[in-house]
Amino acid sequence: MKKVNPEKILPKAPFFDTSVKNYIYGDAVYNYAKAVDEAAIKYDIDAIFIAPYTEIRRIAEKTSRIFVFAPYMDTLRPGRGMADVLPEAIKDAGAKGVLLNHCEKPMSLPQIKETIDRANELGLITFACADSIVETKAIAQFQPDIINPEPSELIGTDQASDMSYVIETLKIVKELYPDILVEQAAGITTGAQIYDFIMAGNDGAGSASGILKSPNPFKLLDEMMFNVRKAKDELEKAKSLKESKRNNI
What residues form DSSP beta bridges with 97? Predict the structure, then answer.
């Protein structure tokens, strides 16, 4: 069983997540975050927004339903040092969590372990990426709060992970630590893919490049978040029906 830090309030499954990478900046990031927040309220679902460092405070202060995450952090402590990302600073700015080991900012396994431990000290939610089945299993041993087992070669493309790969990585994580949340995002470009991944058992799904490179990002964002809600409703309906049948036996 995964150890739970009482300071952490994790997003409720199924959740949505997105980021902006370096496609947009400044006010455009803020406007996008507001759209995510409004859709999260509209559909009554939780959403993770991975924000550039420069926008963390503004987004955290001006939104109410999204979990603002930093895209990375170092493990140094307050004191000497320069140009590193201080964990205390991102928390003070309003970040609820941190993304680790994204393919654009890869980390070694020892670095991932050390950073997860450091984040746990501060009650920051840890969201770790893994680009293979082997790495997924290795990182799961460090007990991050969320794992995204996405093949690096699919990130930023219009090709989503194969469903057999999705199911296998989901099984690996849940057999080790059932409380670790599993999220899929690589190559997702449609609301239907969001729906399918959540119905397959994933705790969350999302998109960044797929949304921001589309002709109408805000329309696609709404479509994807609607499909999180759609999957949530169907899962709850199926659970209720199963319990009803059990009670009638």
Answer: 69, 125
- In 3D space, the residue among 148, 153, 104, 156 whose CA is nearest the CA of residue 128 turns out to be 148
Separation between Cα atoms, residue 224 and residue 220, nearest integer Å: 6
pTM greater than 0.85 (yes/no): yes
What would the DSSP string read from start to end of 65-95?
A: SEEEEES------SSS-SSS--HHHHHHHT-
Residues serving a catalytic function are 102, 150
Q: Given this model, what pLDDT does residue 3 score? A: 60
Candidate CATH numbers 3.40.50.970, 1.10.390.10, 2.40.30.10, 3.20.20.70; the one for domain 15-247: 3.20.20.70
Residue with tokens 């990426």: 129
Alpha carbon distance 146, 228 (integer Å): 17
